[in-house]
Amino acid sequence: MCEVAMEEQGSEITDMEPCASLGELMVVTPRRRLDPPLSVVWTTLLYCAELVTAGVLCRTLHDDKDVIWLGATIAFMLVPAVVIQFTLTFIHRDLGRDRPMVLLLHLLQLGPVIRCFEALVVYFKAGKREEPYVTISRKISLEKGQEVHKELEIGQTERTLATHRNAFKRTAVIQAFLGSTPQLTLQLYATIQEKYLLSVRLALMIITLISITYGALVCSVLAIQIVYDNYKVRLRPGAYLCMVVWRALEIATRVTTLVLFSTALTHWVFLVGVANLLFFFFLPWVEFWARKGSLAEGVEKNFSKLGTTVVLCMFTLLYACINVFCWSAVKLDLAHPELIDRTQSWGRLAMYYSGRFVENFVLITLWYFFKSDFYEYVCAPLLVVQLLICYSLAVLFMLLFHQFCHPCRRLFQYNVHDCLHCVCCRRRRAGRGARNGRGNVPPSYSTAATMVLVPEEPLELLDPQNSLPPHVTRQLGARESSA
């Protein structure tokens, strides 16, 4: 086993990756030019824009004496901001360090601003002095259908920037689904109820929609990076474009459906929202209790069992909030040290989108029959059809992404084509098998596209730490036994 362990300021940073066996292609990549922390700057801009726009809207509502809308807007503005401050402080471990100015800015809800400034200072100072140490990270890169093992030299500056990027990814998700999503729903509902649109409210809704779409995009990318942790993942511009269209249509349709339903059956929308939230909140816990597992111990070393439970409950609440409005792209496993199940579950994905489509259809149909007189100048049947078509287009772009744009689609055991072929042709293949004694199963599209290097060494040398995905290991074992 190859292990590279470096120590800095009393904290251990360890990368453990399996060594390449003899005969494998190993590429040693020197330290490369650092990428600018654009995601950190973009997340900070979204945070500040939403906070400032919400503050201006609160001033307008205060002048108009709209107490109800004012209180709800302030709540959806401050609650996610406070959670973000705690998250950044927790990730950077500032409570045990002497940094009073940073903590003061966090109390003033300006934590993302100072963190963004720190990331930019680290980036612009990079290369001006020699790094104190270099650590090695080993990744697998898919190049022309082949797995190429690469060694990447990572310096202290790159490590620091990676910490900032990871922290702001969590910040973007929290801001999107604990703040922007309820804020967008509230402002759209207020616009319909008041029958006029303020310019500052329109600006706030546009910013929140952008924030939610970006948060959902971050969820998808994080899910890919977590599931395929041993691989170097790079998404092409076409993949990002496909994900943006998929997520924007999915979220916009979901929010519009809930708001329209709430205008017709105001009290029932609370039941729908709470039922969705409780279902997705308790689903990981029920699966955890059914397996009789133990709580993950890798959350934080200094936490007691009560502290670990509280952190897991907050994490599960965020997971539930995401799934109320869009697909979270991951499955929680509270017994796993990383809290994420790394298997690709097509069945769970199909169940979610099928159930969500049926729920949206029922809600929009109830709105159609119980709508108020405000919509008498709106073509209600056309609006219903448009919402259903938009959600169908979101599902279509999701399928296109997994079939053609996913960076690790060559590693799928089954792809979208296989799942659709199985569902549509199951009866025909069963009938053909009954007549011929044995059905001739056509070759799999995704299997035909999968290319795996097969060296001459035994299987134990190829994967000493079981780091390869299970289906790749099975393929290598089957080929070795047949040889």
Features:
about 475 residues; mainly alpha; 4 domains; disordered N terminus; transmembrane; XK-rel; XK-related protein; membrane; transmembrane helix
Apparent shape: globular
Oligomeric state of the chains in view: single chain
Widest beta sheet: strand line-up: 3-5-4
Radius of gyration: 25 Å
The helix tally amounts to: 15
Helix amount: 55-70%
How far the N terminus sits from the C terminus, by CA atoms, comes to 27 Å
Number of strands: 7
- The topology string of helices and strands comes to EEEHHHHEEHHHHHEEHHHHHH
Biggest sheet details = 3 strands, mixed
| Average of pLDDT | 77
Class from helix and strand fractions: mainly alpha
Strand content: 5-15%
Low-confidence stretches: 1-24, 437-468, 475-483
Total separate domains: 4
Pfam families: XK-related
Keywords: Membrane, Transmembrane, Transmembrane helix
InterPro entries: XK-rel, XK-related_adapter
Subcellular location: Membrane
Offer a concise description of the structure.
The protein has 483 residues and is mainly alpha-helical. Helices cover 64% and strands 9% of the residues. Belongs to the XK family.
